[in-house]
């Protein structure tokens, strides 16, 4: 798997080639906590399901996704995506950073990896071999 940035203008580029998924509630709660560094070519992807009832009464298809940096020892670039489109891109500082946005997917990358990624760009997780997706 890899994370690919497809900007509105310009050439696509691979943001990460070593991709892990945080799918369970425990994996999502832990994220990258207790890691003092993050490899250059790494991404942690948080796929979220739409909220079920009764939460669906108060939230749209994409809920608010909060990312905190408590117990994370390295700065991160964080991307909030909805249907592959970047809704927010922000660098968060270790220990004190906090960010939130409406998204169905959040991707955490080492600081600097998402340089040049802008709101409205497309970022996708795809297989290495054929580029066809998960």
Structural class call reads mainly beta
- Unreliable stretches (pLDDT < 50, length at least 5) are none
Strand order of the largest sheet: 3-4-9-6-7
Q: How much of the polypeptide forms β-strand, as a percent range?
A: 35-45%
Largest sheet: 5 strands, mixed
Shape: globular
The H/E string reads: EEEHEEEEEEE
Count of alpha and pi helical runs? 1
- Beta strands, count: 10
Question: Averaging pLDDT over every residue, what do you get?
Answer: 86
Computed Rg: 14 Å
What is the percent of helical residues? under 10%
Q: Compute the separation of the termini in Å.
A: 7 Å
Provide keyphrases for this structure.
134 residues; mainly beta; 5-stranded mixed β-sheet; 1 helix; 10 strands
Give an account of the 3D structure:
The protein has one helix at 25-30; strands at 2-6, 13-16, 18-21, 42-47, 63-68, 76-82, 85-92, 98-103, 105-110, 122-126. The strands form three sheets. It has a five-stranded mixed sheet with strand order 3-4-9-6-7, with no helix packed on it. It has a three-stranded antiparallel sheet with strand order 2-1-10, with no helix packed on it. Strands 5-8 form a two-stranded antiparallel ribbon. It has one helix and ten strands, in the order E-E-E-H-E-E-E-E-E-E-E. With 134 residues, the chain is mainly beta. It is 4% helix and 43% strand. The longest helix is centred in the first third of the chain and has 6 residues, at 25-30. The model has no long low-confidence stretch (mean pLDDT 86). Strand 6 (76-82) and strand 7 (85-92) form a beta hairpin. The radius of gyration is 14 Å and the shape is globular.
């Amino acid at each position: 798997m890899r994370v690919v940035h497809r900007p509105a203008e310009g050439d696509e580029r691979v943001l990460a080639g070593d991709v892990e998924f945080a799918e369970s509630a425990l994996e999502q709660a832990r994220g990258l906590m207790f890691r003092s560094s993050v490899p250059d070519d790494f991404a942690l992807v948080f796929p979220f399901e739409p909220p079920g009832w009764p939460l669906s009464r108060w939230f749209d298809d994409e809920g608010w996704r909060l990312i905190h940096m408590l117990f994370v020892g390295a700065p991160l670039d964080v991307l909030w995506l909805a249907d592959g489109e970047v809704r927010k891109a922000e660098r968060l500082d270790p220990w004190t950073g906090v960010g939130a946005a409406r998204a169905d997917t959040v991707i955490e990358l080492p600081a600097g990896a998402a340089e040049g990624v802008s709101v409205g760009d497309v970022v996708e997780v795809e297989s290495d071999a054929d580029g066809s997706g998960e």
